[in-house]
Design brief:
Oligomer: homodimer
Largest interface: A-B, 30 and 30 residues
Strand content of chain A: 15-25%
Largest sheet of chain A: 7 strands, mixed
């Protein structure tokens, strides 16, 4: 099996711009990428492809294959999938709370397809035992869309239920979850800059 | 074993006031309570206590014991726990995405205590095999606080990892998760009032 991580560093994570500068956001997304790669490596997944555009640099010391495509996210992944004839894990780069046990659970599924929803209707991880026929369609209500695509292909589907795997990092409040539940480089990065504000309701960031 | 559901209806869920009127919020929290009670009943949990104040009416047709206390949340639960000599599930009333399988998993734990974190550092569910010695302290970073209380009592702790069980309903964006993943009366209620806005980023509510 292999894993593919779509990755954007340049001008990434604009919804975090109220709390992190452009440079900080780019450093932070790189930390998250490294955490995701480390988690996959811990699971003995040796073939890890990072799918990106030429404008996004990938750290030299990362043991991954870099595949560049100038297409948008969906076209790039769908074009990539056409050449894959083995089980594939499509995992987003902004999932620093995913741990080794989640990957183990997902790749040992008895179903044809595993889908991990993101917060607010997105899709964080898709595992395809047979990638042929499957096409992705991210953005908007992609979780429901991907469930429907799987069903149309007559695939059996497992919806994997994990708070950690469903927590994608897009907005300032998501960083609180890293401070609470995270580990690795992303947590180190965020801990240097923020504390927790527990004055009212859900916890918030304090600079 | 028994379950206890702390419940507030009157003027509840003020953080939903931008999308639901006071009357609607009170109707909606009642729907969520019924969903939680139904999920517990599906699991053959027969002794369900609803812990509330006299100002909060409980629907007559709900098969629960109503226990009133005029204390605040923490004091009311801690006072309640002093009289409990059997395993107890403390579950919040705003968890309509909790399903039967979650309850089964939690009450079959091998650990002394199970804690289900809420979004933003809260605590959604605590399961105590031996309630003696345990005291709760909700609000603020209660998830970390409850983990520490358990450790101080030398209890073994399971952190239960479920997106559905960790999704407490406090803010308008949480209602989107009910539209995506919910069922039961809460979903019916929200579906009558809202649709999904998928114009940008995470899905939002559309009236």
């Amino acid at each position: 099996m292999r894993a593919v991580i779509p990755y954007k560093k340049t001008k990434a994570k604009s919804r975090l711009s109220s709390v992190l500068t452009l440079k900080e956001r780019e450093e932070f997304v790189e930390s998250m990428l490294k955490d995701v790669v480390n988690t996959l490596s811990d699971n003995q997944i040796k073939n890890i492809d990072v799918l990106t555009t030429t404008s996004n640099s990938i750290p030299d010391n990362l043991d991954v294959n870099v595949i560049t495509s100038e297409y948008g996210l969906n076209e790039a992944i769908n074009s990539y999938l056409k050449n894959i004839q083995e089980p594939i894990l499509i995992i987003m780069a902004d999932l620093p709370l995913v741990k080794s046990n989640h990957i183990t659970d997902i790749i040992n599924t008895k179903k044809d397809v595993v889908i991990v929803p993101g917060k607010g209707g997105g899709t964080n991880i898709i595992y395809l035992k047979k990638p042929e026929k499957f096409t992705v369609k991210y953005y908007g209500s992609s979780f429901l869309t991907h469930c429907n695509i799987a069903k149309k292909n007559l695939n059996t589907v497992e919806i994997y239920d994990s708070f950690m795997a469903s927590t994608d990092i897009d907005e300032p409040n998501d960083l609180v979850e890293i401070l609470l539940h995270g580990q690795g480089l992303s947590r180190e990065y965020i801990e240097k800059k923020f504390k927790i504000d527990d004055s009212k309701g859900r916890l918030k960031l304090k600079c």
